[in-house]
Specification:
Blueprint lengths: L1 H13 L3 H30 L11 H9 L49 H5 L11 E3 L24 E10 L2 E8 L8 E7 L6 H20 L8 E5 L6 E5 L3 E2 H7 L11 H20 L2 E3 L7 E3 L5 E3 L5 H4 L5 E3 L2 E3 L13 H4 L10 H16 L11 H13 L3 H19 L7 H12 L8 H16 L3 H4 L5
Antiparallel strand pairs: 1-8, 2-3, 3-4, 4-6, 5-6, 7-9, 9-10, 11-12
Helix pairs in contact: 7-10, 7-14, 10-13, 13-14
Amino acid sequence: LSKINCYKMLQDISSLPLSSTILFAILATACVFAIGVLVFQCTSCCKNTDLYKNFVLDGDWNQSITESQSTANITASQADNRTMTEFGMLPPPNDASISMNNEATGIRSTAGSSHDLAAIVQQKPENFLRPRMRLSFELVPKSAGVILLPNLLHMDRKHLFFLSELGQAWFGPVIDAECNRYGETLRSRVIVRLLSNEASVELAEKDRLHFLADIQAYKECVDPCVLKLMGLCTTAEPYLAVMETTLTDLKSYLRSLITDGGHRCLEDSLALRFASQACRGLAVLNEKGFIYQDIGARNCRLTDNLVVKIGDYGCTEVEHRDDYVLLEGQLIPLRWLAPENFNFNTEESNGSLKVKDHSLETNVWSMGVVLLEVFTMASQPLSGYTDEQLVNHLTSLTASKSAAELQSFLVSALTADSEKFACQYKSTSQLWQLQELRNRCWSSERPSAGQLFDQIDKLFKLASSTSPAVSSTAAY
């Protein structure tokens, strides 16, 4: 059929006057030439590393970046009082001339100290917390591994522009940046995770798999209450993961509301809304087969519209140091763990406190602690014990192999925190029911994250119906 159509078209052209035929030939030749030039220029641009340079900053940005010049190995000759050369995004692919400095945040380089928090943060995965999110063994076969989706999230790193470094994570620096993916005039703020290159090929491959496994949950769990993955740069090294930016984390927000005279409480419907959104985010993750390894208000991000999104950028251990206890080279959020997280096998633990991976059930326990944080304006759980006292007491309870006694201790201590620090909320039936749901999270028979969300969301809708000011901002 196509041959017949082409033949007819040639017949039509041959029937045209000579001048028209010549004009048609000239236009066709010009189009072919223009396409060839365009392809040649695109190919040249892809090979041109200058694409990543010569980003001129004004004085204010220049000053802020000059002060943190150790963030990248940029020499003083590259900057003056008003301008600084900039690489499109930190750094261009396979550019050995630019490397990120692990001490960019001013963290002391004391990697030899086994008790220094900053040193542990900069260690690699085998000496650090497990990935923030991992595939649930209950829902996903172990053989599934890391399954990358089609490159719908692929982003060219030339659209990213460095602003400052937020902190260090096990994988490398976490960057505050701007993105002009949708046009130069539509720049938006983003957070970028950068996977630093490893000298060892074996370690580099292990880190890549670890990095991609951590990102996988954000790729698959698209929901208003889960931190959004906006793009990936994985066609060249270093790998970049581009995340949406947020106002702050829930813990910092709650603590910012505490006045000198005591606690300032949230509106009842706002407290219920925060609880509902946090539970919704966890429910989405769990239903997709992911288990969060570090649930806490510190890892619930808050947008400027006061929407809670579960997720983190990877550097929470630096931002909230007091939430973690150092146990044999690992940073553990001890105060948020369920009884099942502790290892009662004294032969394996050698008399020391050992913790295990989270499960769907322990995720719900930790979410109950988040609900406690909302009620107490983010007071520290198990506040009646110092870290040392808590470790000693938990060690003795696990050595006695009494799971019931351990659970009784944790529930009693958490309930005491609720009574001691809880704000004087109005005695609405919704809040009383929320506290009952929170207590169910600490029982032996717990609801699933999805069931917890369904029940709390109903309470929120009842409360917000009498509080228009809050309910009007409740849309995700």
